[in-house]
Every structure is written in structure tokens, then in C-alpha cells.
Here is the input.
Amino acid sequence: MAWAWPRILLGVALGGALLLEPGAARGADGGPAPLYQAEPPPFTPGIFPCTQCHQGPGDPTRRRLGFHDDVQDRFDHDAEHRWCLDCHDNADRDVLHLSSGERVPFTASYRLCGQCHGDKFRDWRVGVHGKRTGQWNGAKTYYLCVNCHDPHSPRFKPLRPDPRPQRPEEMGP
Amino acid sequence: MSAGGPGGGGLSRRQFLGRGLAVVAAAAASGCRVEELIGRSFRELSRDDVARVLARAARRQSARFGRPVTVDGAGPLPGVDFGYGLDLSRCIGCRRCVTACVKENNPSRRRPQIQWIKVLELDKARGVDLAHADAYYEADAVPRPGHFYMPVQCQQCRKPPCVKVCPVGATWKEPDGIVVVDYDWCIGCRCCMSACPYGARHFNWAEPDLPADELNPSTHYLGNRPRPKGVVEKCTFCIQRVRHGRYPACVEACPVGARKFGNLLDPESEIRQVMERKRVFVLKEDLGTQPQFYYFYAT
Ligand code: SF4
Ligand code: SF4
Here is the structure.
């Protein structure tokens, strides 16, 4: 399964200010509640840093690549109009870039997603979209867009449901 | 501790008489010893008595399961009124919330099987039409095309009919909004079950079947403390977690982030942000129960 990438638990602490409007999600003491990034972005094992292979800038022409077939095979994110270097930075493959050209690290990929999905981004920043765990009144762990959505095929994949409850007649007296 | 919590005042004479008669009548009907029933419910206890009752409960539960069990009595946090949000445009009906709830809250596993969350499968074409809801759907993968899913659990009503009908005052609403049951005070008459319009209350009609190795030993007196036979139970928003600032277990288990929880009195809380930004509705609004559980569509 393409999205069964390993999740390395690191718990990288990020400043709450990065994510939140001032005052959002207050802690128990009235100060801003600390937010912790759940997990680093999920990479295919062994693939990061990308500069292991990509040192200088490559050919920027849009084309089918001879490598990364797993990504190309499942790529379903406005695939008609977009390709790798729309998001991955050509000069520094270890980072992404916004449409303005500004570079962003993988840990801040939500800024890239938010360029097109502004409504979801706004909801996510205040905790309406997405998932958080931890304290409702204090320190929280948040999930990046890419912790739940495969950026190359973002639609949420169907799941096998947990077992149904017993019907009353199956429980017996 | 607040007025409604432990240590909060006695009964009026009228309440006392009413309760006394109800207790005697219920005792006669259920065959219990009257002495067992006339005493004090948890919320009427003094602080010292609470400590004693908690210690006794922990001792008994530890003996019952042959492993250490803690029984917490944490009261409501000041300035907190809990609200819950469920995003119907996100829920995919995977029942992970049900599984997490069972693991956390120590309900009987089978005969009776008790689950506080019921996930309903509904037809997109019909909308929220509970007469055509199916809680027993089976599938290789969800969401199934043409369907949407609506989890239902205790709505922690502001005007809870279940509380109103209890003849012995064994169930009440706490100042933080949680409707609780004192399992040592419940006489098992099941009036509350017929009064609840949401099917949120469940009855232990046999000795609960909870294997010791599946027990969650971290319990609250008014929440996931293992129940005896013959009492009613229901969702408490995970009182044992939320009174210590943690999210309910179902919120953390939901893989799509459909479940939101927080303090309705804090304008920056996730639940208040939901209410300010999204279309929110409550289930069976026309009944006037005023749930503190809000459904919404985030799309
Ligand atoms: S949903 Fe049912 S059990 Fe829960 S508070 Fe309302 S009436 Fe009572
Ligand atoms: S875990 Fe979330 S998505 Fe799954 S049934 Fe429960 S609320 Fe719906």
C-alpha cells in the first residue's frame, strides 16, 4: 500500500506562533497552549534527504521520469496540470517551495497545501479541520496535512470498519 | 467542588420524603435490602466520606479483578462547560471510536454487550432519517457509496429527561455539563432508559463480562469504574480523562478527525470555533432536550 509509510516518532516541538493566530487555543494558565508536531512528514524509507541523489538542479521540463514510478503511478492530485517541481524545489530537493518561490521545509508543508486549500487551512489552524490529540486545555499534538492525506494522492482511502455490534437477538437472555 | 458535586449540601425535607418513599417502593419491587439503599449518594457525601468511598471502591475493584485499580473522584473544573462536535461530512463509519470507547470505559463485552457509541449508516438520498438508520452494517470498506454515517452517544442534554425521571436521584447533571450515574445508588428500574430519546443508556442485565486483562484500571467513580449487575450506564465524555484536561478517547481514535471537544465557555476552544464557523445542529431539537453534543458539516 502506497501510504503505508513508516511513522517515526520524534515529537518535534514547533513554536505555537508558527501555526496559530495570537491567542488561539489557550493553555490552562491562559497563555498559548503549546503545540507539538505529531510526527515528521512520512517519507518512503531511505529516500530522504533527496540530495543523496539530486545534487544540482535538474531538467525542469515536465515529463515522465524513469525513477519514482511508485509516486508517478499513484499520482492523483490535479495530475493533468501539475508535476514534481511544482512543489519540490529544483535547486534544493530537501525542501519544498511556494508558488512565490519561497522555500519551505517539509515540516511546514501546510503552508504549501494552504496556497490552494485556503478554506481547509484556515479551519485546520483553529482545530476545526484535522486531528489533534493530548490536552483539550493544554499541550496538543497536531497532525500535518500529509500525516493523513498522501500528498500525491490526497483523497482519504476507504477503511475496513471495526466489527458491528451484536443484534439484540444474538445476545440472548 | 461545586454545589452539584460531592459535599454539596443536603436534601430539602420534601425531596427527602419523596426519595424515601421511592426508595422503599423500589426496594420492595427489586427485592433489595432497604438498608442498602438508604444512605447517601455520591454527590451528597462530605469530603471525608468521598475519600473513604473512593478508597473502598478501589479496594473492591482491585479484589474483583485481581489487579490494582484506581478510582478517582475529580470534580468539575471551574469555568468549564463541555461541548462536543461531530463532523458529519468527515465521518466514514469505521467504528474506531466505538472500539476505543470500549477499551477505555470498561463496559461488559458480551452477554450483555454494551457499547456507548452507536454508528448509524444512513442513505444520502434520505438525509438524517433515523427511521431508516442501520447500526449493524457490515462492509469490506467504508464509506459505502451513497451512504453517510452518524455516530450517536449520550448528548449530555441541558434538560435531561433521564435525570428528571429517576426516582432515586441516582443520575444527575454536573456543573461541567456531564450527566453521570452513581452505580451504587442506581436501582436498575430503567426509567431513564425509556425517557432518553437517544437510546444512550444501557442496562447490565447480567453480571458484566469484563475480562481482567481487558480492564482499564484507571477509573473515575462516576465514569468508567466497572459496574455491578443491574445498573444503567452511559457515555460520560470520558470523565476520567476530560477532568484532567485530556481529550475523550473517541476524539483521539478517530482517523479522520471528525470529533471535536472542548470548553464552550472558551471562545478560542475548538468546539467554539466549530460553532462560530460551521452550520451546527442538534439531534431531535424539537424535543427541547438541548444537547451539548453538536453535529456539523465542515464542508
Ligand atoms: S442523551 Fe439521553 S442519557 Fe444522555 S443526557 Fe440526554 S436524555 Fe440523558
Ligand atoms: S472513528 Fe471517526 S470516522 Fe470512524 S466512525 Fe467514529 S467518528 Fe466516524
Remarks:
- Residues 241 and 248 of chain B are 6 Å apart (CA to CA).
